[in-house]
Amino acid sequence: MTRANDLMRIRDLLQRRRRAILSTSEGAQRELSALKDSDRDPEYEEQAQAELADYTLSSLMETQRREVMLIDAALRRMDTGVFGECVDCGADITIERLEAMPFAIRCEEDATSHELEMRGGHAQSIPTL
């Protein structure tokens, strides 16, 4: 299989994932609205459960919103012909990495360097006994 075919397969997977997220998100939004529109005066335990459900649904929706943003960014990179190119060195990101992390913008080597930089340039080590 060629790299172009692999990238088209990844595009298809991203588009299907995006549709699934949006469908799930609509259901979560309906549930959240129903919880908030409840007219009854709940008991303490029921209120706590409703608040937990509200928090859980809100967190899920935020996670889904972020993933859709990442998918949209990846699809835009595909449309402009730069998907799969490392933003740091310009080399091709391996298909294996893109399959595992389709939002990846760096090759493995540059991603590791970037992560170390973000942590202050120190590799975390496990103390020896």
Automatic annotation (TrEMBL):
Stored Pfam families: zf-dskA_traR
InterPro entries: DnaK_N (IPR037187), Znf_DskA_TraR (IPR000962)
ZnF start-end (dksA C4-type): 86-110
SUPFAM superfamilies: DnaK suppressor protein DksA, alpha-hairpin domain, Glucocorticoid receptor-like (DNA-binding domain)
Key words, A-Z: Metal-binding, Zinc, Zinc-finger
Domain Zinc finger DksA/TraR C4-type: start-end pairs: 83-107
PANTHER family recorded: GENERAL STRESS PROTEIN 16O (PTHR33823:SF4), RNA POLYMERASE-BINDING TRANSCRIPTION FACTOR DKSA-RELATED (PTHR33823)
Protein name: Zinc finger DksA/TraR C4-type domain-containing protein
